[in-house]
């Protein structure tokens, strides 16, 4: 009898707790459902506004690249992606143990190069002087057959279905196999903590740490928001990004109407960056 009574009281107590908790559980369920609905809506909204392509590509009109435009493009990329400038004096109050760099060191996503270095295989003794003087902007070529992707042992370097070659900074172990595999010199290695050398932080993009490789990501984070890459906005019409597989796209129109070249085509990596000459 005592056992039955004890069992009854135990069951009743559990029921009471369940009944008392029901409104709270319902409220949580509703809130969670609402959050899920809002999240779904946000994802759908992002997908709706995002810029997409079957294969992203870039066309650079060399006739429109002046020294001023080139500098503006490099600076826009630097600010958008927290690229360190090792010529910048670190804040000694914030980073008291950081000393200035005593040797040349660069982290490059997009940078200026002379013709003979950008296209060494196409160098000609009778090349027009204007090409020798032009600043050529070079960057990651987001190759169709990217050797860096094949060389990376941790899949920190990977290629999306739309052709953009990206990096997962957290998976990078700093082996630099990707740097050895890239024939364009488009990757940089952080031999030291880059964060003290960032003069102006962009909170919308992650910083990197010592021992990590980095490179151009074609502003994938901006494309996802429906924005053009930072370099395109700063180029005054000299750089166009679009779908190489869409015959109606602006990049295809430029390639149909102009003579364009790519870097080191003979290697078979199929670069996605074209230069209108």
From TrEMBL:
Which residues does UniProt assign to the signal peptide? 1-26
Q: Which molecular-function annotations from GO does this UniProt entry contain?
A: 4 iron, 4 sulfur cluster binding; metal ion binding
Please name the InterPro entries in this protein's record.
4Fe4S_Fe-S-bd (IPR017896), 4Fe4S_Fe_S_CS (IPR017900), DsrO-like (IPR054822), ET_IronSulfur_Cluster-Binding (IPR050954), TAT_signal (IPR006311)
Regions annotated as coiled coil: none
Q: What sections of the protein cross the membrane?
A: none
Q: Which UniProt keywords apply?
A: 4Fe-4S, Iron, Iron-sulfur, Metal-binding, Signal
> Which Pfam family, an example, fits this chain?
Fer4_11
Q: Where is the 4Fe-4S ferredoxin-type domain?
A: 163-192
NCBIfam families documented for this protein: DsrO
Q: What is this protein called?
A: HmeE2
